[in-house]
Amino acid sequence: MKRNKQEHEIDLKSWLFKFRSKWYWFALSALIALAAGYVYVKSSPRIFEFKSTLLLGDQQTGSKRAQELLEVLDVQSKGIKVEDEIGLLSSAEMIKQTLQKLNFTVAYYKVTDHWLNEITNLVVEEQYKTAPYEVELDTTALQLVDIPIKVRLLDKNTYELVIEAENVPRYDFRSNSVVGSLPIVNFKKTLKFGEHYQDDNLSLTLQRTDVEDPTGKEYYFVINSLESLVKQQQASLGIAPIDREARVLVLGSKGSIPDKQVAFLNTLMAEYVANDLKEKNQNGLKTLEFIDSQLATLSDSLRQSKQALSSFRSNNRIANINVQSNINYEKLSQLEAERARLNTDKTYYENILDQIRNGNGIAQSVSPTVGGIQSPLLNNLFVQLAELNQKKAGYRTTATEDNPMLRKIEGEIASTRSAIEANLQNLVESANISIGNVNDRISKIESTLAALPENERKLMDLQGQSEFIDKKYDFLLEKRAEAAITLATNATDKKIIDKASMVGSTPVNVKPKMIYLLALLIGLAIPAGFIVLVDNVDNTIQGKNDLAKITNIPFLGVVAHGSKSDKLAVMNNQRSAIAESFRSIRINLQYLMADSNFKVIGVTSSISGEGKTFCSVNLSSELAMSGKRVVLIESDMRKPTFSKYFPVAESIGLSSFLTQGLQLEEVVQKTYMENLDIIPCGPIPENALHLLEMPKMQELLSLLKEQYDYIVIDTPPIGYVSEYFVLMRHMDVNLYVVKHKYTNKEMLSQINELYDTKKVKDIYMVINDLNYNKTYEYGYKKNAKYYYA
Q1: Could you report the per-residue pLDDT of 318-356, keeping only the tens digit for each?
Q2: Could you tell me if 716 and 733 lie in one domain?
Q3: GO molecular function of the protein, one example (predicted)?
Q4: What's the pTM value of the predicted model, to 2 decimals?
Q5: Is residue 229 in a domain?
Q6: Do 331 and 460 form a contact (C-beta atoms < 8 A)?
Q7: Region of 134 on the Ramachandran plot (φ > 0 left; ψ -120 to 50 alpha; else beta)
């Protein structure tokens, strides 16, 4: 656990080192981010938050006291669904109705006199009743909407109107609809304040106000269409209950002009409450209209029946009727009253059924309130229909016609209406059956009364008819009084608790300290993220720890970064960092191989360009300078490079010895360094691999071992050719060179496989061209550069 913790700390320090080495990236990024934050703070409009609260009632149709006393309706309480009410409040129709009560059509703006506006118009403020001019709009004419219309104040009496825009809609405020559009508008006109201007696309008058605004650099206004205003207010409006089960709604809004947002929220709540009361009054008026229509019909019938009874009594001088006749006529009167009631009920049912089939408003809100429908199922269906209509209104605020939920609700509404229609049809048929039954009973009584004297019978008929009409009239008068009381006592149970007010005194969108801190963090995070991304994407070897993660081959040492032109760094400058690197490698190699009598050192790499020849030459030089006799063999006969390091005779060399039978003394060439000889590759053969496989190679190494302390073989890279695998059996020790930030990690897969399968032994890794200033692992060495010349 301790080791893991230490490794984690080293990784963290390594990242800090990488970040510190690119400190100028962080400084530049932070500066740019802070500048962007400053521009954002200065250019963003100050948005404030506003709140108000509204209480929802229990959705009764009249005052609660009147409901309890009169019991006009026999309908179960429907309660209230908060989600539906939120949908109605935030619906486009409700917001549109609210905006039509307010004067938000023209929005005024000014470009302030700020230095940022010298570049472009960044700092813009909205004005509300503070502009130095006022626009009087002619809503009977077409207008260009939703584009900025610039106003340049020339003096106190004149101004210049400028419009430069594309795809400009032409709007008719009478129908609140777009009537075509103009592809390009390029308009400039000098006018006087108070002078009306009108053309095919614009009709307005600008009046100069008493406001003087020295901070305004440029002014413009926007004529907003009703649809754009609705979208703006819907986007900023938020409605939610204060608690999950609460009936108190919190209405929130955000905007840059406090007076406008306060007026909007207050007007929205007032319109919502007024609509609720209006809807209840409309339902009551429908009830009164139905009763009045029935009373108007009965009034004439009642007058005619009383007149007929009075005339019959007067003409026939009839005052009394015997008791038996009275009993029969009383029964007949009761039956006729029952039949009349059934006919009234039937008419009522048919009336409602007709309204349902024709889609009239009685099916859109609540169930009928008069008529004595005693069917709980039908009443519940009306309640369910009203709830579905409310839910549909709520979904329409955010959903389109193709929304699956909206289609589902419309299906449920159609199903409920069908059920109501079927129930009403059943009631009508039931009434017909009851009327037929009563008619049969009346026929029997009339047959009994037929034996009575004609005058008495006629008198009883007239009395029964008059009493029936009188009772029916009294019944409807009673119901009308109840309905009138209900209508008179109607009161909305929705109440504005708190009017709109601003929450706090600071903007909710622009907080300079927070924005500058966030900008600074972003400015630091961007280069840090970029460094991390580049480091993760970079698949090259970054250092010793990186190398240890991808191979189990032991690590021998590193070669410091130096000048590319100094090929023989060890010989030319023995106090250089490169010379010290090879000195350290030599000592480590001799220490690791102390128990073995090694002579042959093979140097290879994955691919060309990793510095294996450079390492071979300078390691040989270091061994020679330590007093050892060293011979350096160039076995890469495909791409020889010794000529870049030594003045060599290319006509003879290794290939000559292997093919021409030359003597050893003929192919070994002296260098200007004591103790160091070289054998260049010689003439490039057609098949280098076959030459290296010849017994002569073994013979050559045997001869050299007798004369030299160390034999260093510069071999071809194993990633390209196979010569190394032929020479590998002659090596006592192998050095595998990888180049810092050059060698791809995947290149080590082949040598790893050889090492893991023990096909190659005594192999060590060397990192070449490592820049101490760019790595944390050896960063400490950059402070010791004064030890080097």
Answers
A1: 555 555 567 777 787 888 888 888 888 888 878 888 877
A2: yes
A3: non-membrane spanning protein tyrosine kinase activity
A4: 0.54
A5: no
A6: no
A7: beta
